[in-house]
Amino acid sequence: MDLVPALEEPLNQPLKSVLGPATAKVMAEHLGLHSVGDLLHHYPRRYEERGQLTHLADLPMDEHVTVVAQVADARLHSFASAKAARGKGQRLEVTITDGSGRLQLVFFGNGVHKPHKELLPGTRAMFAGKVSVFNRRLQLAHPAYELLRGADDEAAETAESWAGALIPIYPATAKLESWKIGKAMQTVLPGAADAVDPLPESLRAGRGLVSLPEALHKIHRPHTKADIADARARLKWDEAFVLQVALARRRHADAQLPAVPRRPAPDGLLAAFDDRLPFTLTEGQRKVSKEIFDGLATEHPMHRLLQGEVGSGKAQPLDSLVLTPAGFRRMGDVRTGDEVVVPDGEIALIDGVFPQGERDVWRLLLSDGSSVECDDEHLWIVATSGAWQRGQAPEVMTTRAIRQDIVEADGSPKWYLPAATPVDLGDDSGPPHDPYLFGLRLGDGSRRHHLDTRVPDVFKNTSIKNRLAVLQGLMDTGGTVHTDGSGASFRSASPRLAEDVAWLVRSLGGRARIVPERAALDVSVSLPDLYAPFRLTRKAAQVGPRPEDPAFRRGIRAVEYVGRKPVQCISVAHPSRAYVTDNFTVTHNTMVALRAMLAVVDAGGQAAMLAPTEVLAQQHHRSIVEMMGELAEGGMLGGAEQATKVVLLTGSMGAAARRQALLDLVTGEAGIVIGTHALIEDKVQFHDLGLVVVDEQHRFGVEQRDALRGKGKQPPHLLVMTATPIPRTVAMTVFGDLETSVLDQLPAGRSPIASHVVPAADKPHFLARAWERVREEAAGGHQAYVVCPRIGDEEDDPKKGGARKSPEDEAEKRPPLAVLDVAAQLSAGPLRGLKVEVLHGRMQPDDKDAVMRRFTAGETDVLVATTVIEVGVNVPNATAMVIMDADRFGVSQLHQLRGRVGRGSAPGLCLLVTEMPEASAARQRLNAVAATLDGFELSRIDLEQRREGDVLGQAQSGARSSLRVLAVIEDEEIIAEAREEAAAVVAADPELERLPGLRTALDALLDEEREQYLEKG
């Protein structure tokens, strides 16, 4: 079948035969243009307006004008050049007149030769340029001009049309200027009449779009701005529609391919794994799981994009504490098989430990002054005070959900945590001395205690009876009864001892709160009826009845952002799926679950996960093995009945381990393999590959994905995962052949941060006000960051001379502002009197630590730093950030930096300082960043900045793009409508036999490389 109709032949004509070999060679080598059609689709990137004709007597300063005048005089001057090597320089001065006034034109250097020959006295011409002043005379330097020849009437008509025209400015190269491309376009433009229209007539008429030949004429030779708008609207539809047809045909073709349905067995591996899950799936997780399982059960390959937080959180920092029968241990030190205490006092085993890398960490501040840290997905067993009293079942809620709904209408805490049941700790040996007598001695003179006085661990990690005895000894000597008889308190000058008394009270299921009082600390003590705070009869007799609510629940008073920390989560083999953490706080727990892979293994297939780095592959492997426990020990002693084998395959593995992994894959022993690019090598063979899971898809080439998919006996199902929010339009264009699932529990915004752009060049007083705001924050007891792109002790390139630059050029060419320079200027100027310090990457580690310690302690008012503060820095008291030369940073960097403020109870302020002009793209990007904290919206901004890249090819960096006028972000509506139209067209005519023009356009779009891309998916 001939897919190129005869009508299309003029557009297929090589440029060599139309423009000549020299021009055609440059166009091919530098612009990738080979045919008449290629050149016609090389659209102008902007248009210049020459402006209306202006009389010489009325010329405005610093504006672009067009005049028609006659040359009165032309003189060529020679002068000594500043560059001796070039010898004499030349300057052509031409005086023109239109009867109303006179104007001087100036041409320099090599630019004098052509006008010296053409602009002879008596010649009439049109001149266009910017009016300037030199030696108190108006002039145009190097103006563009067009000679006017012929009769007066004809010349006048030419002048009017030339002056009013919209001049197309084409993407050009040093070898081929825009005006030369324009002249070449003039030669080939008649060929536009032969362009075959790819849009179905019904679609074009229904949307009021001009024909393709008319659109091509209007885009290259517009008479009005309306012509440009008409042309762009039409050409955007071409690009959107043809692209969506390509993707729709791919989806249609996939639907015809056979695949093995993978349905999990009712009592198989997935069910056994779910039984181990120590949590209930959220509604969003259940919805996404159903979409994936439905796709796996079909007889055609599933192609699904899962975007959102694909990794579960529900983790705590490694420096958090977990209560074990021997006492508290660091979260980072616990291992699978260790014993832990669950809230009801029983002992249970840890059956899974899952490192989660670094995550954002939050701190829950409880009503007794204690606190506990966790990630945003961590689960808590909570209920309102009324629900607890009524005996209603508690809820399991994430940290995120709690912090978004934290207080009642009267300002009191909404959510309360249950108390942990007291348990015996330590071994049977007990403490070395009588605990009560030890408590008496320690409590005696409690108000005069040394600051480091404390209760030794041996008296804390002991039985309930012994802990109570120590506490009673302390209270009998250092404790007092409240005047209303409702409770008691212990006073100490030692913070360590006060904390240990509170620890003892909480370990007994009671409530303790530390309150500073003059030179000492008061610890309020309230214990369950089972335990008396005093042994002395006279003190015990003064303790009155307990309040009506006998429970010792603690309310969640606030949740504050801590920063990024290494975290992990654990699985507890107990029906409660809960454990006791810092300060005897009850917490729930969970872990990452890759249930889709287990479903496929359950159904007799194998699942492969492709990770972008060895570190990530190893982390996934370790987590999955620990999560599955004996379910990952297929073929091994102790493995569960439904178990499979989970293998790791990376490039750095030893030969023996690699041989065994390859054997396990080809025999089917291994149901799950996690690996890097090593998975796609020819030697790797599968027994029955049923599912390919690609982690962080944007870091893989299409060929790599395809090589792995090609290892299945039939096309395997495909699940692409990304934690990066992808705008809907990008998903429709870049991932248009994939169905999309979105986990809707994306991270919410942090504490309120107000962001503003400070235009330092346009409005210098705004920058002055920025420094005033920093002073105000410091006066209020807060601190500020000032961030600069550069350190400042580097050797700067000397400024190069040359023609005068635009303000935007000047802002870009100026070296970025530097930490050392800015810190010195601030200390001597607008922030004089404040304590200003610097921090940057080339400082010695000890010096950096010392600076951060002082800043964290509040000794420094302002920290001037590079992006070393971008991650891992947490100073809740820092409320303001000024980012200098903000246009030099990327969107994600600005967002990361901005996240350093607004971490405490006070709102944050982020000021983005720039010298870029208001109309510049960089300024618009900063305005957009300032306007939102939303991850999806910021991903849109980031995409706009980087451009879409070639959405159908391998060049995804933005260097080249198959989209010429369609903007993925701006033209969302067109893309969505084009997707619907394309699906309908392909459903009715998959081979496009009734639409030869569309098929031709598709063939032009899908050159060999892109055709392979679509085939590979």
Automatic annotation (TrEMBL):
Establish whether keyword Acetylation is in the entry. no
- Protein name as annotated: ATP-dependent DNA helicase RecG
Q: Name one GO molecular function term.
A: ATP binding
Please report the stretch or stretches of sequence annotated as the Helicase ATP-binding domain: 570-743
Q: Which residues form the Helicase C-terminal domain?
A: 766-944
* Pfam families documented for this protein: DEAD, Helicase_C, tRNA_anti-codon
Residue ranges for the region (Disordered) are: 788-815
Record's keyword terms, sorted: ATP-binding, DNA damage, DNA repair, DNA-binding, Helicase, Hydrolase, Nucleotide-binding
Q: Which residues form the signal peptide?
A: none
Record's keyword annotation contains Flavoprotein = no
Record-annotated DOD-type homing endonuclease domain positions: 437-510
One of the protein's GO biological processes: DNA repair
Q: Give start-end positions of Basic and acidic residues composition bias.
A: 797-815
